[in-house]
């Protein structure tokens, strides 16, 4: 109650606003009906498999229209951290390391571990989050659902889901084109064309091309790195086959090429005199950059490479009866292939070793839905959704670890001198490689019904039965005996599991502008296999168990003053059992069920529109997370054995996160108008380590990021010119931390001083840009 009152007071004081600056389906940058379109109660969402106002859905949801995303400069899923306090994004070099976190819970994507936050594109499940890094374009709506979505979304939505819907072809000839340039030698072009052939047939084409040099520089030469060039296309078709049958088909293709490397440096507070002396001596005085205020690196990323593509096709066939029952058949196929190579994996200026890896996912989804009319059964008291679901995924993960020119003389000569001759003899060959093919099949049946006990009080009951089968093989070969981080292994793996997840919700709507709800729900993410390298044979211990969640929520959604004020608040508790985590320890990947977590807190958002031309929005999230049981956690690098982390806070779980924004629109004469928007997001102190060990060296301080956008519109809004910037104060911060790779071998651990050299993966620096576009 104390935290609820504190949040309410904060929002009232600051004139805050919502986590869902919803817009109607309009061309991005368009100012049309800005006041009405910005009302978070008017956005239409499909979180319950039917079109509903966001304010009428009794779940915790942050929803955005395409115009809202454009005004906030959200072009990638990672940008949502500026708008959704409960959402966190982390990554490393390349695209496969994407980590989506909701309410402090999530896992890295660069392994066979599946995400705890599920992603859906036009109703089709996307198994691997890295495949969506190419950006967002022509979006109708984007929804971030907090808490288990184990009934209607199901697979791997144990702590939340991201639901993306693209624009459907309309019956008007319309389109837009825009070009954009910005910091990092970034140049971008977009094109949208909607072509109706009749009232019943229309197509929509979307294209994007971006060239990006990168924000970072290699210090000795000034060469840029971190850039990725992107090509993206989507073709959609809408066919109204009859009065009752509609068919929407989509095909898309995205590619990314470049180096995609991240600026990495050492935290100065982690370097004791002993570490500086030993580490420096082992590397011949060639230390990485120390400190996080530099946008340059001494690590040559020339060997880094990203060559990714992602394509897919989907079909949604809908039959609607005369009595408004809807039958949907959704089919989709996705193919993601990421062939990438890290730069120097040790993040030092010394050539020790690099990794080349291939991630390839080929998946097919098939879902049959029955959606009843909302207000007709039993005199409008009963409605339901039911369906069957099937997923098949073939996943291949292959790693090659290649020894660098100084591996033998730097590492082996110091820690294993007898292996030096063999190391030198095999230096030109790969040091170690592993292969991991996996096949997954998932079947599910689900149903959810809502019964109005009285006209203002509704009870919702939902359930989903899921069955999962997985087959895999782990093969590893140590080509060079000096590749001490891996060993030979050949293990066949098999896993099968089934679970029932449920949802019980009671909602009370005393009037159209007030909704109160209470929910109990469960979530399930199947177990799987550790595909990571190991210096010892793991065999059947590579299998890890399922992750399950029990969640409790109470919430309020409200609108006042003729809907000029919107205020929503949700209090929750999530009990997670068998939390799955992937950690990187000395270049060796470890995946396991690390323990049980209790995540609880309060989320609040509000929108204030005092006039038709001015609005304020904001959201606040308070998170209290801790391990309720983790007795065998890994020890700190300067210790041995294990430690008990029960009662400790997990990583990537800040206590406070906020977002506040303001938007003003005005005429400037001659039919011209302007819109100015500014947003500030804050992230509280948190531990950003790649492994949960409660290390004080990876605790990072709170920081705030400021962004703004000024858009000028011509008479009739036919063209526009925008100037924008992100991280305008040029705040230097870390999106992730980790220990120096091979720290024991490189003398980067100080046992007496209880410290270890710690790396910082830099967040983006200040970026500026301009955009000009027109529509027809």
Automatic annotation (TrEMBL):
Principal subcellular localisation of the protein: membrane
Domain called TonB-dependent receptor-like beta-barrel: residue spans: 241-728
UniProt cross-references to PROSITE patterns, sorted A to Z: TONB_DEPENDENT_REC_3
Membrane topology annotation: Multi-pass membrane protein
Residue ranges constituting the TonB-dependent receptor plug domain according to the UniProt record: 54-160
GO cellular component: cell outer membrane
Gene Ontology biological process terms, A to Z: iron ion transport
Signal peptide per UniProt: 1-22
Pfam families assigned: Plug, TonB_dep_Rec_b-barrel
Similarity comment: family membership: Belongs to the TonB-dependent receptor family.
Protein name per its UniProtKB record: TonB-dependent receptor
Organism: Tardibacter chloracetimidivorans
């Amino acid at each position: 109650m104390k935290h609820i009152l504190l949040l309410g007071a904060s929002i009232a004081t600051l004139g805050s606003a919502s986590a869902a600056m919803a817009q109607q389906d309009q061309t991005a940058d368009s100012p049309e009906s800005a006041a009405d379109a910005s009302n978070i109660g008017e956005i239409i969402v499909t979180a319950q498999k039917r079109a509903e106002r966001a304010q009428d859905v009794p779940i915790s949801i942050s929803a955005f229209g395409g115009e809202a995303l454009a005004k906030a400069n959200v072009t990638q899923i990672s940008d949502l951290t500026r708008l959704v306090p409960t959402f966190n994004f982390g990554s490393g070099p390349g695209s496969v390391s994407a980590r989506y976190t909701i309410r402090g819970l999530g896992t890295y994507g660069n392994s066979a571990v599946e995400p705890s936050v599920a992603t859906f594109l036009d109703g089709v499940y996307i198994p691997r989050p890295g495949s969506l890094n190419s950006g967002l374009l022509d979006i109708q709506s984007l929804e971030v659902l907090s808490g288990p979505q184990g009934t209607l979304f199901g697979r791997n939505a144990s702590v939340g889901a991201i639901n993306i819907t693209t624009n459907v072809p309309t019956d008007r000839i319309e389109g837009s084109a825009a070009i954009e340039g910005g910091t990092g030698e970034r140049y971008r072009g977009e094109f949208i064309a909607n072509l109706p052939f009749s009232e019943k047939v229309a197509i929509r084409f979307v294209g994007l091309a971006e060239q990006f040099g990168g924000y970072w520089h290699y210090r000795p030469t000034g060469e840029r790195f971190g850039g990725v060039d992107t090509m993206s296309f989507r073709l959609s078709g809408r066919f109204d086959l009859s009065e009752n049958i509609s068919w929407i088909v989509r095909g898309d293709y995205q590619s990314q090429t470049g180096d995609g490397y991240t600026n990495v440096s050492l935290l100065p507070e982690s370097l004791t005199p002993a570490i500086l002396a030993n580490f420096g001596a082992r590397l011949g005085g060639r230390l990485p950059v120390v400190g996080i205020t530099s946008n340059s690196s001494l690590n040559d990323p020339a060997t880094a490479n990203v060559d990714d593509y992602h394509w897919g096709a989907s079909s949604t066939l809908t039959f609607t009866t005369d009595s408004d029952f809807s039958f949907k058949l959704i089919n989709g196929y996705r193919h993601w292939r990421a062939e990438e190579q890290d730069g120097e994996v040790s993040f030092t200026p010394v050539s020790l070793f690099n990794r080349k890896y291939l991630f390839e996912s080929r998946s097919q989804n098939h879902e049959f839905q029955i959606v009843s009319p909302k207000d007709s059964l039993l005199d409008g008291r009963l409605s339901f959704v039911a369906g069957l679901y099937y997923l098949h995924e073939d996943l291949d993960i292959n790693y090659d670890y290649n020894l660098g020119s100084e591996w033998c003389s730097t590492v082996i000569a110091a820690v294993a001198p007898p292996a030096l001759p063999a190391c030198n003899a095999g230096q030109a060959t790969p040091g170690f490689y592993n292969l991991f093919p996996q096949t997954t099949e998932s079947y599910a049946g689900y149903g959810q019904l809502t019964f109005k006990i009285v006209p203002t009080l509704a009870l919702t009951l939902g359930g989903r039965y899921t069955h999962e089968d997985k087959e895999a093989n782990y093969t590893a070969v140590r080509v060079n005996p000096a590749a001490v981080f891996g060993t030979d292994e050949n293990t066949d793996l098999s896993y099968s599991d089934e679970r029932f997840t449920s949802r019980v919700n009671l909602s009370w709507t005393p009037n159209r502008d007030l909704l109160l709800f209470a929910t109990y729900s469960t979530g399930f993410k199947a177990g799987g296999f550790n595909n990571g390298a190991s210096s010892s044979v793991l065999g059947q211990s590579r299998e890890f168990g399922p992750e399950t969640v029990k969640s409790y929520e109470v919430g309020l959604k409200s609108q006042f003053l003729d809907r000029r004020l919107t205020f929503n608040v949700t209090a929750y508790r999530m009990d997670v059992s068998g939390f799955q985590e992937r950690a990187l320890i000395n270049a060796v990947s470890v995946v396991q069920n690390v323990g049980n977590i209790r995540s609880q807190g309060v989320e609040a958002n509000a929108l204030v529109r005092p006039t038709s031309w001015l609005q304020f929005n904001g959201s606040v999230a308070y998170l209290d997370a801790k391990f309720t049981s983790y007795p065998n956690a890994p020890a700190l690098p300067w210790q041995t054995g294990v430690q008990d982390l029960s009662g400790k806070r997990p990583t990537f779980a800040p206590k406070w996160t906020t977002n506040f924004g303001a938007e003003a629109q005005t005429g400037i004469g001659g039919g011209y108008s302007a819109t100015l928007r500014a947003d500030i997001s804050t992230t509280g102190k948190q531990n950003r380590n790649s492994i949960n060990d409660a290390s004080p060296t990876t605790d990072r301080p709170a920081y705030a990021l400021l962004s703004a956008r000024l858009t000028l519109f011509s008479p009739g809004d036919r063209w526009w010119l925008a100037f924008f910037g992100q991280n305008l104060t040029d705040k230097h911060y870390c999106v992730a931390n980790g220990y120096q790779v091979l720290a024991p071998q490189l003398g980067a651990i100080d046992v007496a001083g209880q410290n270890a050299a710690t790396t910082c993966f830099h967040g983006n620096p200040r970026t500026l840009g301009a955009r000009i576009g027109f529509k027809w």
